[in-house]
Amino acid sequence: MRRTLAGLLFGLACLCASLTLAGFLLQRTAFDPDYSAAHADVVLADPEIRAHIIDVIASDLAQQATTMAPGDPNLTPQALHDRVTLVAGTKPGADLLAEVVHDSHAKLIGAQTEPVMISTQQLVDATQNQAVGVAQPVNMDVPTLGVLNIVRTALRWLVPLAAIATLALIVMGLAAHPERSTLFRSLGLGLLFLALMTIVLGYLVPKFLVPVLSDDPWANAPARLADDMLPVLIGLELLLVGGALALLAGTGMMRRRQRWSTPVSTYRYQEERRWSA
Fold it and tell me: What is the value of pTM for the model shown?
């Protein structure tokens, strides 16, 4: 009974640990505008997102060109488009647009209710043209996806609660004095489940599920961040699966050792001799 209880507690602990780690990774890729801003070059590597920003800036500034510097060849629609394309395609240029990336991602997931505004200074940075310093800020239309807002709010509570539950269940499992073979088997199966949840929530959901929720280019941002984090996920998967296989192999070895070391019952031996006499 005690062994069964310990196995159940460790199994629940591994389930909570899976939700903690996988939920944390999902937060980084799909629900963290600060992380997106810090990796603005990764987000802007998406052709649709980059084209969206370029088109919005170039078209709006072209309409304001007559009030900024009439006749300036650098303020024609094509010149503005080419210049913003050049700037947005570089790492320093992407860093200059990091706040735009932050606000757009925040608006998409419901963390920001205000419209996404590209300030005058950001327009100057994007065009590298001081004549743009008199332009009005540009409004960039980014929708809010209700389902992402719900999941974001749920994860904000679920991840810390799952982490606390993991620690509590581990303590209760150890208090149940499980056999080592039971402990290793529970941990091994838990690590396999953890590896599965990590790849599903940490990569597959932001990579494939989030982009199909909307036709807006900004829905591709989580997929780009998931691809950028993939090498880390692969290394983590190898550690988790390797650890799980080692624990399960150790469980088998311990059970075989216990079976061979179990003494033969003397009573049974005497009974067998009596019948054979």
Answer: 0.84
